[in-house]
Design a protein that fits this description.
Elements: E1 2-6, H1 10-18, E2 23-28, E3 42-44, H2 45-51, E4 59-63, E5 65-70, E6 76-80, E7 86-89, H3 91-98, E8 104-106, E9 112-113, E10 118-121, E11 124-127, E12 130-133, E13 148-161, E14 174-179, E15 189-195, E16 198-205, H4 210-221, E17 223-238, E18 242-243, E19 246-248, H5 264-280, H6 284-317, H7 320-329, E20 333-335, H8 342-352, H9 356-363, H10 372-387
Parallel strand pairs: 1-2, 1-12, 2-8, 5-14, 6-20, 12-19
Antiparallel strand pairs: 3-7, 4-7, 5-6, 9-10, 10-11, 13-16, 13-17, 14-15, 15-16, 18-19
Protein name: Dehydrogenase
Organism: Thermocladium modestius
Amino acid sequence: MRIGVAGAGPSSLYLLRITKNHDITAFEEDPKLGLPRHCTGLVSINGAIGLGIYRREIVIGRYSRVRIINGEDGAAVEFRLPRHSIIMLDRPGLEESLYEGVGVEFGRRVKEATRGGSLIDGEGAHGFDAAIIGEGARGRLSRALGMRGEYLFGIQGDGRGRGSGDAFPSSTDEIAVIFDRRISPSYFSWLVPLGEGEYRAGVVDEPGRVASSLNYFMKRFNIHYRRKFGGNVMVSSSGYIAAGRLAAIGDSTGLNKALTGGGILTGVLSARLLGEALNSAQDPASALRAYAKALYSAIGGTLKLYSTVASLLYLRNGIEAVLEVLDSVGGLSIEVDDYDNHAKAVAAILRRRPSLILTLLRLLPRLDLGPPTDAVKLLLNAAYAVNN
């Protein structure tokens, strides 16, 4: 089978590595791997090991706690995880570790993808038995699959910080996630220690407002960046994972962790499932259908629920409801065993603080749930996630 891939990020490089007995080529618009930088790189160590992407030399931070903070009044809930079970991967280093030196054509920008299996760049249309979209969260090529995303914009970077107070990490193994309308009324900000007084810190907001949000954030926490990077943050999406001879992997599927913005592990998992489908089937269309079914069965229902909730909170209602929830659970310290399983963390909070259900019920009448179809979609996704 001849397979063409648009993009050479971690998901695409992983696909190249595991897809055997096929002629597979990735087209990458940049001149080298790791561009552009836009990822914080936080994953669970168990997930990284399970997918075979853990390399000691590309780990630049290890963490054991996540504190979710109402930055306006200091109320917070702490999640305690097994020691150093959260790791920060160097994203360019990850890509270099996955690249086997062949199969990528650099400086080739794919402009269009078709359900018939074609990738179109400046040199014309190139037909394949299967065409794969691995462009990340841009959402340009994945429109061919009916993908429609809702986006905010994030800016982050590495640099020194000398802040203090309740909304600042209390140790080098603690990640601080801050909800504060003075920073961003649309999303959260974060401070992740890198050691020796440095942090990877960033904000997300509406594109027209994110620069001023970043300025306030920098002043509040006395952050002095030595480098900054950023890009689109997909908050919610809808569309198909595969159709005809075209499929998406990574953030192009729209199945990222919308509540945290993280997508490395889910992206690599999608690549693994696609590689397995291609390796076990000779007919490309049936392989892509099998892949879509496997991916949705594995994580799709849960991530669609996260996506719907994120759209409801961040895009439609802002973070006011989150602030009230944090006030109702402030002071809790919860043990969880998996950084990537948000549902398990929420369940642990409900067990410790059942009154949170009453808080949520009081909030519902004040929330803009959108048209009835959106409310039904939320309920259906919730039911699927609970049952799977």
